[in-house]
Amino acid sequence: MAIRALYLEVGDGRHKAAEICLKCGVCCNVAHSCHVMFDHRFNPRYTFVYDCLASDKGVSNTNIWLCVSCHKCEETCPYEVSPIHFIEALKGNALSLGLVHPTIRAEVTQIVTTGFAFPVTGATERQRQALNLKPLASKAVANLGKIAERTGFSERLKERQP
Amino acid sequence: MKYALFLGCFIPVRLPHLEAVARKVLPDLGVELMDVDGFSCCPEPVGFLTDRITGLAVAARNISLAEEAGLDIITLCNGCTYTLRQANQTLKADAALRERVNGILAETDHQFRGTIEVRHYAQVLSQIVGIDKIESIVKKPLTGIHIACHPGCHIVSPPEVMGFDDPLDPMVLDGMISALGAEPVDWDRKTTCCGWTLTNYGDKESANRLLGAKLEAMHAASADCSVVICPQCFYQFDTGQMLAARELKIEYKIPTLYYLQLLALAMGQDLDASGIMQHRVKDTTLEEKLRRLTA
User: How far apart are the CA of A18 and the nearest CA of chain B, in angstroms?
Assistant: First the structure.
């Protein structure tokens, strides 16, 4: 997945900005904002820009899943390249290529099938009862199923080999 | 003022004591919370990047339920606010995308019309209720409690969508803490992510190092506790701190509180009613100070 292939998804203005990226590293060296400096896989040589944006195989780089979409790189990039838009576009391609992070796959499946991102357990209900809160019952499941069918998301969620 | 209460998932499923405190204190500030049947997960902002149009449709469906009730949405979570405000703004501005999403929603009998606003409760309190009103409702000022404010990432960025605070120098939560009579401390690493994503999709050692650095900065600033407005941040600083402290051999404790718990205490509720005693990280010195102030 070359960066060129992402142009359509991130828009013309954005990809022109990407072309002037100097790989200065400011986006990944925002010492008091982005969390990337705490992961051993990141250092000034292996940044989102080098690994993801300048690589033909960015979408297969598991580091893209460490981006929390905090937009701090966007706030600090001196050339308005905004790596977040490319990282998000890479994530958008991951599902159809069978490269989505397994935790993400499990989480979105859970949401579409139950309406909640986390399982509602007996312990949850006991805690809620003790606090005089209503039991949890999602009335959204049928609607979510229809949405996922209509967009093809249900089909794309099925496991694919990369 | 009436709002549709959007609970999301994290608080009602994992931290229901925070839902309980929200239902107790917000009405006393004139914020009436209405339950709307049928809300789902917002959906979760990182996961649904894998399928943006499905994520937008799920968010649009949630917004449409509040539209049908004629109510603006109030949220308790940064992530929910981020997802719903992004979707609301995007769909209001882009007619072609709105038409596409409404086509997807057709079979659900809901349609996005773009008639309401979405706000985090911190936005409602700071921008609509007002700091003066918060100050006026305080019965037990939290004098002498030093607090490290951590607003979190998704409530401040991107600022043109979130409309809450400066992402690189956030001070609104500090003002909300001062209104309770407590003292916000100036601390390093205030804007660093809590590490929730690193814990879940990265490696836990890195997340622990991040959390350790944040705790060290809070400790260096002599904070008695931290305050958050997001359940994921809360979970990291509470359960995450307990786990990280074992790994990193941290000897001090920095309890974390959800803003509405501090508000409840300042409004005269006791520690048990505020839910603080259910937290993983407890510090007897802080508890004694709070008991004395709220007696």
Answer: 19
